[in-house]
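pasting for ref
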Amino acid sequence: MIAQETLHELTAEDPSIAYTTDTLKTAPYARDQGPVMELVQPDVVVWAENVSQVQTVMRWATRHRIAVVTRGAGTGVSGGAHATTGCTVLSLERMNRILDVRAQDEVAVVEPGVINADLNAAVEPHGLMYAPDPASYRVSTIGGNVATNAGGLRCAKYGVTRDSVLALDVVLADGTLLHSGHETFKGVAGYDLTALMVGSEGTLGIVVGITVRLRYLPVDARTIAAFFPDLAAAAAGVHAVGAARVQPAIMELLDGTTLEALDSVHGSDLATRGGALLLIQTDGYGAQAEADVVRDVLAGLGGTVSSEGADEAARLLDLRRHSRGDAVEDEYRVGEDVAVPRSRLVDYIATLHDLAHKHQVRLKVVAHAGDGNLHPTFWISTSEGAAGMGRLDAALDESVRAALDCGGTITGEHGVGQYKLRWLSWEQQEEVLTIQRRIKQIFDPLNILNPGKALPPAGGVADIGVPLEDVSQEIL
């Protein structure tokens, strides 16, 4: 427990810093939305309101070797913002100003607590948009998106967060303020520290300012819903659209189990229309022409194709964004976030179903099919006890192994966090991990920045298995 005199030292340096040690107030900051292995309460929560306060906190934390877990809105799903023993949670939610919008340059400068949707609302009158759109875009912060290199539905055309970040202001572990990057679209001077920071999950520094690239707001958009008898047929449609050389802005794949779940929660009738749904949106001046090509291609594969009006398209996309909201109390669910080359999409989906049958677990699959990022969810009934949990854990491990065997990755957009540490060494050779540990030591020699996240210690981590608490979280 952090001593009161130590906390008094923090406020003596800056009396305006807001903090609490009240367990009722710190409890909501103990975790993000990721699976919890062991719930730990933070010793203190600090709410920073400006860069100077972040620097003060880090100088104080360095002097006393106090671990600091930085947090935005807490929407992460890999445990990257879980509290660790004896830590201070540093919340940046109050640093929520849009500092500058330069429409002619197509850039904006924001603080880390700015909500993704709020930035888009601010730049829309200029005919611009901030392209990354994670499912939690209405509540997730830009700083949190940067920390995890978040993705979203529009990744197929516009890329992930890293592709829209030009420059960063970062407070290092000792309180030093660092500026990296540039305000131009092109810039290759020196090592790319900005790209290194994006996706580092708060383990190298604390992002306090972000210069983002804005894109043109599409003048038109067309949404096509194509229902197929099964998931394999719908996945084949993904390849067919690519072969037609159409680049959709959105290409989402939902299996029949997901459609049934959505129907039960939202009162929709998706499952009556087919066993799998391929949801595609084209945008820009060529939206209609591209949509015509997509319709012809998918109809030729036997899909039941419709072009949705604006209201129905918005409803379908919103249902897709909320396709994780059907967990029930008597089930254990664990979702994943793997990515595979698009050419292996059909093969990998078939493997997932084989694994579900082999381990006697249930399965549903949704995917950002345009870039091969899949979110399979395995689950069992709570009544199946330890034996069921063992099967669930085995299915999860084998699904990750299978993705790697396809040339894929253990995480497409959500980060390693705490939960996926055991799998990182499956993907990256020890020499690569050693170099990353050396980089971590340069930026954070005392290991106080989000320790135990993103990078396993030398010697690896224990086989932690399925989380013991709150395993119903799905990763989408």
